[in-house]
Amino acid sequence: RRTMCENNQTKITEFILLGFQDFYNLKIILFMLIMLIYILILSENLLIIVLVTISDHL
């Protein structure tokens, strides 16, 4: 008797990523949202670096 692992020889060689081609407004909103999150993360990291540099206790 064969198990599933022996019978299944499927190999995935590539992925095709489909975007939001029909939703131009959604693309703009998602871009702005991701950009805002990215800027917030950079700002918070910069704030941590500045606080650690300035403070003697940290």
TrEMBL record:
Instruction: Provide a GO biological process annotation.
Output: sensory perception of smell
Origin organism is Pelobates cultripes
Q: Which residues cross the membrane?
A: 28-54
Q: Localized where?
A: Cell membrane
Q: Does the keyword Secreted apply?
A: no
Keyword Transmembrane helix in annotation? yes
| GO MF annotations, alphabetized | G protein-coupled receptor activity
PANTHER family assigned to the protein according to its UniProt record, in alphabetical order: G-PROTEIN COUPLED RECEPTOR, OLFACTORY RECEPTOR-RELATED
What name has this protein been given in UniProt?
A: Olfactory receptor 11L1-like
Q: Which UniProt keywords apply?
A: Cell membrane, G-protein coupled receptor, Membrane, Olfaction, Receptor, Sensory transduction, Transducer, Transmembrane, Transmembrane helix
Q: How does it sit in the membrane?
A: Multi-pass membrane protein
What GO cellular-component annotations does this UniProt entry give? Answer: plasma membrane
Q: Which InterPro entries match?
A: Olfactory_GPCR1 (IPR050939)
